[in-house]
Amino acid sequence: MTSAVPPPGVSDAPGSGVMIALRDVVRHFRRPDGGIYPALGPISLDVATGEFVAVVGPSGCGKSTLLHMVAGLHPPTSGSVLLGGAPVYGVSRTVGFLFQDDALLPWRTVAENIGLGLRLRKVSPAETHRRTGEWLARVGLEQFADHYPAQLSGGMRKRTSIAQALISDPSVILMDEPFAHLDAQTRYLMQMDLLDLCAGGGRTILFVTHDLDEAIGLADRVVVLSAGPNSRICADERVGIARPRDLLTLRGHPRFGELSALLWRILYEQVRGSYAR
């Protein structure tokens, strides 16, 4: 007797609770001419508690839309999104979102930007000051606490954004191509910082990227979305490389090469299909 194989995106990992669950999710958008564009779905996806899942796919396939639905920024047209088993009906305080472009307030200092979420949650000034100091140290910005965003390099701004997203200790972190605009060297350093900050599996991460090497290097699983319209999950592969990882040497790992070749072939077919349409 053979065991049933779960559909793409639905986890069969034993012993792990599901933190993020999408069930038959569909998302449509209204066109300027009044018509309907069927962007996503139906999609079903499980992300286990403490798991790091990267999502890749052709441009316009709905990767960011998927994140926005999990964040509660946009509701699905049909289907359901759940966090920790509870339906998502709006923005949750248990979720941290790191956008491609930082959301730093230009009139506030680095320290003020990092601690902003705690102040909005009415955390006491003393506790906010303590935790802000801890995160300034963790991202190496103690010397720049009183600087403004315009006085920072791109990497410093991104580290400020990461501290801003993580200081509230969210159980779920959503990242939408957070390192896309950085140069190669700064990007590598930020990727290693992310691996260090999220070590231990205490946070569940859903990470969107166009960079397949980045997806394999950082994630536990890589999910590939098909070209739209009606984008769906066309591949879901476990990385299977032990942590901790050194991203400089990871490309020499046999599994890295095997998985990269497999996913590139799948992505190529999807991109070729999108151009054909």
Overview of this protein structure:
It is a single chain. This protein is α/β, with parallel strands linked by helices and 277 residues long. It is 33% helix and 23% strand. It has seven helices and ten strands. A six-stranded mixed sheet has the order 6-7-8-3-9-10, with helices on both faces. A hairpin with a 5-residue loop joins strand 1 and strand 2. Helix 2 packs parallel to helix 4. The longest helix is centred in the last third of the chain and has 23 residues. The N and C termini lie far apart (42 Å).
Structural class: alpha/beta
- Using only C-alpha atoms, the radius of gyration works out to 19 Å
For the biggest sheet, the summary is: 6 strands, mixed
Number of helices: 7
Mean pLDDT: 87
Q: Topology as H/E string?
A: EEEHEEEHHHEHEHEEH
Strand order of the largest sheet: 6-7-8-3-9-10
Q: What proportion of the residues form beta strands (DSSP E)? A: 15-25%
Distance between the termini: 42 Å
Helix content: 25-40%
Residue windows where pLDDT falls under 50 for at least 5 positions: 1-6
Number of strands: 10
Basic shape: globular
Oligomer: single chain
